[in-house]
Design brief:
It catalyses: D-fructose 6-phosphate + L-glutamine = D-glucosamine 6-phosphate + L-glutamate. The chain is built from 13 helices and 10 strands. It has 357 residues and is α/β, with parallel strands linked by helices. α12 links the parallel β8 and β9. α4 packs parallel to α8. The two termini are 30 Å apart. 52% of the residues are buried. It binds 5-amino-5-deoxy-1-O-phosphono-D-mannitol (M6R). The site of 5-amino-5-deoxy-1-O-phosphono-D-mannitol has 16 residues, from α4 and α11.
């Protein structure tokens, strides 16, 4: 039930700190160690490459998850849009493990890949919010998101839950392989939960940003580098899905290779700047668009901020910034849809789970 909330989407955005804390509880044993099925651990240890398969928002979570698996657990990983995988199947490694990410566990595009790779004799792990779902039943292993029912068509808390569970999976695998990591995911996720709470208390600031900058615009660009880029893809999807503003996410460095031609006087450009190693370069991309008349808004992180930034998120571990920077993006989309009188929870042409290919 929505309770006092006007929309499920807003309720689900607000639930994210609690979901983080539930994930911490569910994936922690009595001795404060990570709790994962030994079978999952063994499969992760045995594989030589991970193929992440997903659609939409879950695909965007997969892009972040790939980084975790490679940077923390040292396993090569690739991410594929489910609907493309079957036509363009890459050459598979000797011992692949398939990881399906799906909030609903019912997405037909992902299921058809699952059926195919099972026929080929490969193992699959499904990360889902619905443990009894098709993708969960038909895979060898399941990791549960514990996000609680997600009703709004626009996925919010499932995305952050997916990223949190992927971080836990990567660290657990690294530890199982005897790798030494200077990163405690449960502690870091607790910091994220607190940061999310700070952000969900700043709705008025985001609403104002929307009113001042996205009121009547027909399009908007999101730019970022490294993991900020992945969050830009998600921010753009959220905005177009519920407010019908044409929005695109771009890698900051790619702009000058074509897209910058679209920048006109007043075009909104939202730039994410939460990564220290690309902070300088993304800010120079912002100068490039500003010089061409763009209405730029920089969303940065505490410690990297400058006075002119439009919004600053609290500081969290650099690998986990997508978990916090996505929250203002979700709220931007929400208020943009609200201001345009769109049906926030049930956008046109869309269904909560896409059960046709
Ligand atoms: O249930 P799934 O995670 O498999 O769904 C995948 C996409 O259909 C879904 O994420 C979609 O993109 C959302 N409406 C985005 O908000």
């Amino acid at each position: 039930e929505k309770g006092t909330y006007p929309h499920f989407m807003l309720k689900e955005i607000d639930e994210q700190p609690f979901v983080m804390r539930r994930i911490i509880q569910e994936y922690q044993d009595e001795r404060d160690r990570l709790k994962l099925d030994q079978d999952v651990r063994n499969a992760m240890k045995a594989c030589d490459r991970i193929y992440i398969i997903a659609a939409g928002t879950s695909y965007h979570a997969g892009l972040v998850g790939k980084q975790f698996l490679e940077k923390m657990a040292g396993i090569p990983a690739e991410v594929h849009v489910a609907s493309e995988f079957s036509y363009n199947m890459p050459l598979l490694s000797e011992n692949p493990l398939f990881v399906f990410i799906s909030q609903s566990g019912e997405t037909a595009d992902s299921r058809s890949v699952l059926v195919k790779i099972k026929e080929m004799g490969h193992q699959a792990l499904t990360i889902t919010n619905v443990p009894g779902s098709t993708l969960s039943r038909e895979a060898d292993f399941t990791l549960h998101l514990h996000a609680g029912p997600e009703i709004a068509v626009a996925s919010t808390k499932a995305y952050t839950a997916q990223i949190a569970v992927l971080a836990i999976l990567a660290v657990d695998t690294a530890r199982a392989k005897g790798m030494k990591l200077d990163f405690d995911p449960l502690q870091e996720l607790a910091i994220v939960a607190n940061a999310m709470e700070v952000l969900t208390d700043q709705k008025e600031t985001i609403e104002e940003l929307v009113r001042d900058n996205l009121g009547t615009t027909r399009n908007a660009f999101f730019i970022g580098r490294s993991s900020d880029y992945f969050v830009c893809l998600e921010g753009a999807l959220k905005l177009k899905e519920i407010s019908y503003i044409q929005a695109e996410g771009f890698a900051g460095g790619e702009l000058k290779h074509g897209t910058i031609a679209l920048i006109e006087e007043g075009t909104p450009v939202i730039a994410l700047a939460t990564q220290e190693n690309v902070n300088y370069s993304i800010r120079s991309n912002v100068q490039e668009v500003a010089a061409r008349g763009a209405n730029d808004m920089i969303l940065s992180m505490k410690g990297l901020e400058q006075d002119t930034d439009a919004f600053v998120v609290p500081h969290v571990h650099e690998l986990l910034t997508p978990l916090v920077s996505v929250v203002p993006m979700q709220l931007l989309a929400y208020y943009a849809a609200l201001h345009r009188d769109c049906d926030v929870d049930k956008p046109r042409n869309l269904a909560k789970s896409v059960t046709v290919e």
